Fold each of these.
Amino acid sequence: MRRTTIAISLLVGTAVTAPMAAETTRWVERTKVDIRAGRGSFYEIVDTVLKGEQVEILKTEDKWASVRTSRAKTGWVYEAALKATPVQPGTSDFLKAAPGDISTSRTAASQGAKGVYAQGYAKEKGYDYGIVTWVETHQPDGAQIEAFLKDPGDKTGGAR
């Protein structure tokens, strides 16, 4: 009788924990997704996962999921990039070799959108966004970059 009770308890315990474990696993639905140090596209990329890879959900906040990747890296990803059921890995190798900044996320898809979000964030935090505008308007042109690459000691950028 005691063995039967123990066996039933183990079966019930396994049946209860199996769905809980399945609920914390998600699969990447997009071609390539950046895992970031914080909840936002302006945070540093800590890992990149590809379509079909599994991640473990640690917690969720405001449509963002804190995850652990198969490489034991932890960070944040927008929940919409994940699916609760297995996803077939992508067939294209195009983005796999691309550097970490190339992404298919909605926010990274538009440089303009990133600028709008960054300006809003800076304003909300009380930061001076003017330096970004100054840097953007004072970028060297192609000829100046070429001149610098030919002669890094030339501080005029080829303009003499």
Amino acid sequence: MIGKKSKAQSSFELLITLSVGLAILLPVVAIAFIQLANANSSLSSIGAQQAASKLAGIATLVGSEGPPAKQVVQLQVPTGVRYIYIGSTNNDIGHEVIFVVGAPAGLSYVTAYTPINISGNLGGIVASGSYLVNVTAVSSCPGNAQLPCVYISPIV
């Protein structure tokens, strides 16, 4: 009888030790996953900022040359990008390139400013990857025929 009692006690002590170990380990694993998600979101935002700045810089260059200047750009879209706006958030004539990036806390807007009028539509680009984009100086914008601008569109 004494041998069975000590075996049961040893099993119970082992069970308690493992439970305490798991209770300590589970929060550490949860915190690690949260930090990893935040790091991935930060990398997506940094990549989106680089892509937006590149596109705005080339639009400024093409716009300063005037019509019929044109340049083809290879745009690297990072993971997590939900939408790309050109000009303004409703794709009208404006001065911003806006990348909408998904984050654990919601959506974040990454923007790059250009001093010239820009317009276009890159809304169809939502998957990560490399895309060719036309950046063209035009004498009349599609939204306002009296306004010169740079029109940005994907090559399909």
Amino acid sequence: MKTMTEVVPVKQGDYPECVKELKSNNLVQTLLWLLIATVLFVIYSRQQDKSSVLVLMQMALIVVCAIMGVVNLFINNNKLVYSPTGSVVKKQLYNFNIAMKADLLLCLEEGNVSRLRALKTDDAGGLLVELLESDDHLFLAARLSKYEPHGYVPKTDWVIMKSL
């Protein structure tokens, strides 16, 4: 069975109420990397012999710290969290053939994720099941979406699954 866990842009309100978006601020971490690079550069600039191996290694470390600082500016660390326990929630996507719609709706109605995961997936199918599962395995929700000309459109609300 093919599954894909991926980070997708989080839109407030697209998830059950007990799942919240946790935004992390990368600014502090970015400034820390750049501060380390600056301090190392000041130390480097005061050294007399700039051709020794240790000084060259220090220069490489300065470059790495500066790159880490710049790259960190562009990293998006938003994550979903299950509010009652604070556990991180991962999103899994399963594609199914349109002919599987009745079986998928039955799985969602029963809340049986084991049966849902046992169904044959089809990457070219027109249905998408999104699963939200917390790392502590205390929360699992699913939603069925159908492909339409402008993308996948949810056809069911989020269903809290009973069996993990």
